[in-house]
Write a structure and sequence with these properties.
Blueprint: E1 7-14, E2 23-31, E3 47-51, H1 66-73, H2 77-84, H3 93-104, E4 109-112, H4 118-128, E5 140-142, H5 143-148, H6 162-179
Length: 186
Amino acid sequence: MILKERDIMIDLETLATSPDSVIITIGALRFDPYANDRGRDARDMEHFYCRIDPGSFDYPEAEINDDTMAWWAKQSPEAQHEAFGEGVARLDIRDALDSLFDFCRPCDRVWANGPAFDIIILETAARRLGKKWPWNFWQARDCRTVFRMVPGRDPKPNNHNALDDCWLQTVKLQEALKALNVTKMD
């Protein structure tokens, strides 16, 4: 199914929190912000997901942070396996970015649970590797801010699977936009 809306939700799992963080998984969903995707499975929607080889971040600025690694050690076994499990295919960051950016073309808006994290980290990696992302700075949107505009809606925690987190952020955004009576965005 090809959507008339060209919105993309992106989520990353990383090994640091700085713009130069090493990325270990990327999830992205193409979605209609005015639809209701609750009850759907992210894998049945237009999606992108990949695990990345941390060793492919071969530029000197790439960062792995001890505090973030300690945080990962406290996550569920399922989250740890998804992020670090052995015997799963992992892409070089260059190939991962090429595939993600192809998936994102065309897009009207690119959403994240705080573009100052996910989007900036992607753009920083792309810049370090001489790649161009398929969105303009004015197309980046922050779903966390929209969530907070609807009183009494406490966001549920994510499970640190980038694709599942994209789905949760998408559904919460759709519900918040509906509650706010938003039927059109520029």
